[in-house]
Amino acid sequence: MGPLSGKPALVTGASSGLGRRFASVLAGAGAPVVLAARRVDRLRELEGEIRDAGGQATCVELDVLSETGVTAAVEAAEVAFGPLAILVNNSGVSAQAKIVDMSLDDYDRVMNTNARGAFLVAQAVARRMIATGTPGRIVNVASVLADKAMRELSAYCMSKAALLHLTRVQALEWARHGINVNALCPGYIRTEINDAYWDTERGQAFVQTFPRRRVGEPSDLDGALLLLVSGDARMITGTSITVDDALSIA
Ligand SMILES: NC(=O)c1ccc[n+]([C@@H]2O[C@H](COP(=O)([O-])OP(=O)(O)OC[C@H]3O[C@@H](n4cnc5c(N)ncnc54)[C@H](OP(=O)(O)O)[C@@H]3O)[C@@H](O)[C@H]2O)c1
Fold first, then answer.
1. Cβ–Cβ < 8 Å for 121, 60
2. Cβ(55) – ligand 1 distance below 6 Å
3. For the CA of 156, the nearest atom of ligand 1
């Protein structure tokens, strides 16, 4: 039992990094959690961990690039635990290159995963929330780079800016259905998406420019996540919470 018991949650990108943490935190608060990503072996491992800790979890294979795959995953999630009350729309990829060097393949992969993919998942989930009359919470995992420009991450910055603005439109369209939609904008958190970089000379020098001279841990996002999915967030919609150690205002 916990504050989220009886509130089924879908977490995309639960096979690593932030998504893995988000899923564990929601399960720890009592939510039955559906773990979604392409690497099902990793999801199964997490499912086992959550169950061993007394939580409820199941896995569905999901590639957010596939429209039919997204619909099928959302259906499977609902079959497992009933109508979804929470979506953490977290799957994302990055590609580092100067604009003049970036391939169209990398551009498409980043935009199609982070913007189109997140659009499709939220669309499929909201359709079901509306059809089943389930009030819901959607957390789109954007980034401080939705707003802050960063060299060599053009497609990533564009995709997160799109997701942040999509969050506002979703909040407007779905407010009357009792669905609150917000963005969570992390600063730099050490995960597989950036792990190798922090050990390079360039990465270490970059950290020294941060106000707190540190890279965050996935657990640094727990409080913001739990607020956004809670009943206390009833009037919080169409906005974002930045969790970045003051990086974006430095
Ligand atoms: N770490 C940071 O500093 C930071 C900062 C701001 C925002 N973020 C955002 O936080 C989110 C999670 O990133 P992370 O740091 O945890 O990185 P990560 O460890 O690389 O995790 C990315 C997740 O996205 C999933 N994914 C990628 N492509 C997918 C696809 N086509 N379909 C379904 N799932 C897909 C991956 O699962 P599979 O490969 O198994 O499919 C993986 O679970 C991303 O949206 C990222 O942009 C991260």
1. no
2. no
3. 47
- Residue 71 maps to which CATH number? 3.40.50.720
Residue at 231 is within a domain = yes
Q: How far is the CA of 176 from the centre of ligand 1 (A)?
A: 30
Residue 4 placed within a domain: no
Q: 1 pLDDT band (50/70/90 cuts)?
A: confident
Average pLDDT, whole number, for the chain?
A: 98
pLDDT tens-digit map of 44-89? 999 999 999 999 999 999 999 999 999 999 999 999 999 999 999 9
Q: Which positions are catalytic?
A: 156
Does the pLDDT at position 197 exceed 90? Answer: yes
Query: pLDDT band at residue 37, thresholds of 50, 70 and 90?
Result: very high
Domain of 52, in residue numbers:
9-249
State if residue 15 touches ligand 1 by the CB under 6 angstroms criterion: yes
Q: Ligand 1 pocket test: which of 12, 45, 46, 93 has the largest number of ligand atoms within 8 Å of its C-beta?
A: 93
Q: Whose CA is nearest to atom 19 of ligand 1?
A: 17
Of all helices (H) and strands (E), which one includes residue 6? none
Closest atom of ligand 1 relative to the 65 alpha carbon: 31
Helices 104-111, 154-174: crossing angle, 10 deg rounding = 30
Q: Is residue 3 part of a domain?
A: no
Q: If you average pLDDT over residues 96-106, what whole number do you get?
A: 98
Helix 222-229 / helix 17-28 crossing angle, nearest 10 deg:
60
When pLDDT is cut at 50, 70 and 90, the band that residue 146 belongs to is very high
Q: What is the pLDDT of residue 163?
A: 99
Is the dihedral angle over the CA atoms 28, 31, 32, 36 positive or is it negative? negative
Domain-located, residue 27: yes
Closest of 6, 44, 46 to residue 229, by C-alpha: 6
Which amino acid makes up residue 54?
Answer: G
Pocket flag, ligand 1, residue 13 (CB < 6 Å): yes
The total number of structural domains in the chain stands at 1
